[in-house]
Amino acid sequence: MIKKYTLVFFFFLAYLFTWSNWFPQALTSRGITSIQVPGFLTILSGYGPALAAIIIVSLAYGWQGLRELFGRLLIWRVGIQWYLVALFMPAFVIFLAININNWTGGAAPDFSSAVFPFGPPETPLLQKLIILFLVFTLGFDGLGEEIGWRGFALPKLLEGRSSLVSSLILGALWAVWHFPYALTKGTFLSEVPLHWFFINLLAMSIIYTWIFNNTNGSLLPVLLFHAAGNTTSNLLPFLPPATTDLRIYYFTIAINWVIAIGILFLSNGNFQSQKRVV
Q1: Which of 15, 87, 117, 269 is most exposed, with minimal Cβ within 10 Å?
Q2: How many CB atoms lie within 10 A of CB 194?
Q3: CA 221, CA 73: separation in Å to the nearest integer?
Q4: Number of domains in the chain
């Protein structure tokens, strides 16, 4: 039964693990309850998609499936151009959005207001960059999400579906997974229109699939891409609470969609063929 409905069980567990922490946090942040979530549950929730993938793969495919799942982390000979794309595309998109904002009369962002969550504000920029990148690569955002989303769910979706359809399905479910976080006061998602975040993740999902398909299903570039995007977003204050002007954020969404449409146009909607792994 699990083999027949692996994706259904995977998304159920991924949501269950993460929402068991995020929903109480959201309610507490709004003064509705005062639930104290145990520390182990906080860690569990952060790695929800990865844990869901590991459990489902082990039950449905055994040790061979787990070897293939984690083997994606060892596919490193993918071409230096894909590492460059993964590491620098997020910064390129945001810098381009900032410049378009300036060219169209928008207020220039105050870079001094960027928030660094892992030390004093006066920490040198390079040190901030290294710390954030390592945290986002090895933590919840990188390994915690991508082992599940692109390591397991995407290859399964690609079985019998086009890259575009697979990307849109995964992008939608990925966005919905974030919704409880949007209910938490003080978070980025609580400050932006949720439908725009949803639209942006659809474009981002297409870009992730493009990278994934062109690197033989390697998880390394998508991990780096996720970490680079979150690192750039934290160091450049184009998001609340550093500023209440979302023009740069909207320009970022537009640029992501231009890239996604370019991928669709240049690849005729198929991106690249992908072998079944699990």
Answers
A1: 117
A2: 14
A3: 9
A4: 1
